[in-house]
Amino acid sequence: MRRKSHLRDSIFLTSLFTIAGILAVFFPLSYFLTTNLTENNARDYSRQLLGQIKNSIEFYTEEMIMVSDYLAGHPDVIKYLKGENPLAPSPVSLDQQRARIMSELKAISGTRQDLVNVILFREDGNFITNRDHAGLTPYWDYREFDWYKETVAAKGVPRLSSSRVENVIAGEHRWVVSLSRAIYDQDRLLGVLLIDLNFKTISDICSNLSGVNGAYVFIQGANDELVYHPQQRLIYSSVKSERFDLVRRSESIESMTRDGIIYSSVKIKSADWVIVSVTDTRQMVQVSPLVIASYIGIGLVFALIALFVSLKASKRLTDPILELKTSMQHFQQGDFDAKAEITVTNEIAELGEQFNSMTQQIKTLVEHERLIEEQKRKSEIQALQSQIRPHFLYNTLESIIWMASSGEQDKVVEMTSSLAKLMRASASKARELVTVQVEIDTVSHYLRIQKMRYQDKLQYEIEIEPDVQNARMPRLTLQPLVENAIYHGIKPLRDGGLILIRASRAGTELHLEVADNGVGFAPGARTLSPGENTDEGESIGLHNVHDRIQLLFGKDFGVTIRSADPGQDLLAESGYDPAAGIRTIVSIRLPLVFE
Fold it and tell me: Is 213 inside a domain boundary?
């Protein structure tokens, strides 16, 4: 067996006796002196820079706290938060009170370019902002956000946040730094003041005092979260990284050096912020002409020696690398079967083996991804099939024509309105997940149309627990199930039937049921096996819903069917009123998700 050699050892042994003397005397000494001088100069510079920026940032934050103190103690603000009306009994006094407070907020924000939002939240949900016609984001309760809870827990102490996306104002998603404080009347919480600041002033302070020799400054908040960084987007996208482990939360300036980069940090008094200056000492090396001449002379001698050594080692070093490069180029051009044939026995050979293993894994992953995309495409096609069927639209339009000719204008309006809303929900390109309430409204439009068509032959009831109304579920999930119940369960009955829809919470899951007292499922149609489907049969809608749920949430969720056998009047385990005669229950299990 051939002895395995190491590329590093081969180069080292070949060049050791020719350049060891030069490297051992000159370069270590030169490196030590240069590095030591550079680090001392850079450390002094970073401390001076940090002290100036600390004073400026503290002045800025204290100024903003004074603004919050002024608003929190303003008489009109206190009366508004308490619900008192200082101008009663004038009929316009309430509007006047809000106008006075809004005018005060506008006056404050109008003098500063860094103020984005100044919002006063009252505990009953009312609010006043400095911006005309600004409204809160619907379906988002600001009292559920961390900043609000932490502000209330601070018991009136102003809080300065790290950088975050402000979602309170409808239609806006701005990066801001927020100052917030709870306003109390003794121990009773009256409301919360929120002041959103853009990065203009902070950026001006940090950029005006930094930038020399590549130095820059960033600000870190609590829990290692960024408040400001000149390259903040690169940090959040992981393109750039910082050594946050070198940051010290001390009220006196402390410095840490790693790999020629000095991190100096100091904590300000007015907020839980740490100001950090970063200085690359490699950009601050001051080299004299004499040193340059010495470097050139020694460099020439070293180059001649290195050239001789490289001629001996280059062929052994470059041949396997070129082989590996060729294989990589073939792989880059789409040849997933490309293999690196390395004949030497050193680290490059190990690299070639790892490259071959990597190409095999990538080939497997690409094939797996192709299969996933194919399955996704099929699921999307099936989802389209489960939308409103043409024959339903034709029958509805015929019913509208018949009612119009009979002079039943109110019913024409009602059915047309329901059809329009149903078609809008079906054709919408909205998000895949909607609230339970939106899905119930959609299926209600469908049932209202069918009720007008079948009249007394169709009855339906909908029960939804209040705490799941805002839970999220795939859109157009219930309509195919209800359609299946009508056409294959209720329609065959001579005397008509009943459909019951339920939505409830079960621990960490959302449960929905569509139950009917129709003819029931045949025993062979009560399971939803993968790949088992029909063109127009009673299970196509159920299969589509089941596949979509499992594609979104995994195999633990989906659709199950319980149906009574022939001769039975109801399902004993259904939990419904026996008088309803329920014979089929289609259940949907989903994870309980709120957004």
Answer: yes
